[in-house]
Amino acid sequence: MNIESKIFENSACLSDNEIINYRLGKTSDDELHKIESHLIDCPLCSDAVEGAEMLDANSLKDDLSYIREIEINNISHFRKYSFIYSAVAVITIIAVTALLNIFNQPYSQKLFNRYFEVYPDVTVHTRSSGSDSILAEAMLFYNSGNFDSAVEKLDEIKEVSNEQVDFYKGVSLLVLDKPTEASEALLPLTKNKESNFYNEANWYIALAYLKLEKNKEAISHLNNIKESYDYSDRVNEIITEINVNE
Predict the structure, then answer these.
(1) Is there a contact between 235 and 222 (Cβ–Cβ < 8 Å)?
(2) Cα dist from 88 to 95, 97, 99, 188, whole Å
(3) Which of 94, 135, 136, 212 lies most in the core, judged by the most C-beta atoms within 10 Å?
(4) For residue 54, what pLDDT is reported?
(5) How far apart are CA 18 and CA 27, in angstroms?
(6) CATH 1.25.40.10 residue ranges for the chain
(7) Beta-strand runs (E) in the chain
(8) pLDDT (mean) for 137-159
(9) CA 182 → CA 125, 157, 169, 172, distances in Å?
(10) Mean pLDDT score of the chain, rounded to an integer?
């Protein structure tokens, strides 16, 4: 017996025998009062009784099951569309919640989202052994968007100082939403003006601090590259917006 067919069996609805006896006038006064009181509040049983009244007494027992099937199908149909409407309502709530989360973000987080882009791979790939080979493998992961594996590979390089390793690890960690670890990887590069990644490291560490809502630290690093041709416009825009909102 399927779930729908148990609706009448397990509820207060009229049984088949009660409907048959009611249709044939074979109920006691107490049963008659009970049945008619139930029919006032139960459209399903009312429809079943109405259908039974149109049947010949001889075929009533056989055809009542067909009436029940019609009622059950109607319930299933209702439940199907109720589920669809409920699903649409849930999706709508999730979408609205997501939008509210976006609008309620701190402005520094909004600045991060607006300006952050993954830095392109400018490394020279080699097939040699050692750290160069590991770096090449790490950058393959980086370029494919597998930043977790990129960080794991970069961590295998044991050199005390490697600009490319520190920089691309920092960017990867920012993508992975780990701004504190990203700033730690990038910080050494921001202290060396001779570094090939000096401007880029200051830019990305400033974004990391924005994500952490450490705006003073972000401005400090942005000021380091305020005169940079590549970053000056964006730096001035961010500093202006921070000053307006504080």
Answers:
(1) yes
(2) 11, 14, 17, 51
(3) 135
(4) 61
(5) 8
(6) 113-245
(7) none
(8) 92
(9) 23, 17, 7, 8
(10) 78
Q: Where would I find the H helices in 116-178?
A: 131-143, 147-155, 163-175
Comparing 15-19, 194-198, 209-213, 223-227, the range with the smallest average pLDDT is: 15-19
Phi, psi of 64 (to 5 degrees): -65, -35
| 170, 188 contact by CB (below 8 A) | no
Name the nearest CA neighbour of 119 among 171, 76, 178.
171
Do 171 and 154 form a contact (C-beta atoms < 8 A)?
no
**Whether domain 113-245 has CATH 3.30.70.20:** no
The answer on pLDDT for 130 being more than 50 is: yes
Does pTM surpass 0.70?
A: no
Cα angle: 43, vertex 47, 49; to 5 degrees: 115
CB 195 within 8 A of CB 217: no
- The encoded tokens of residue 104 equal 């309620």
**Rounded to the nearest 10 degrees, what angle do helices 16-24 and 29-41 cross at?**
110
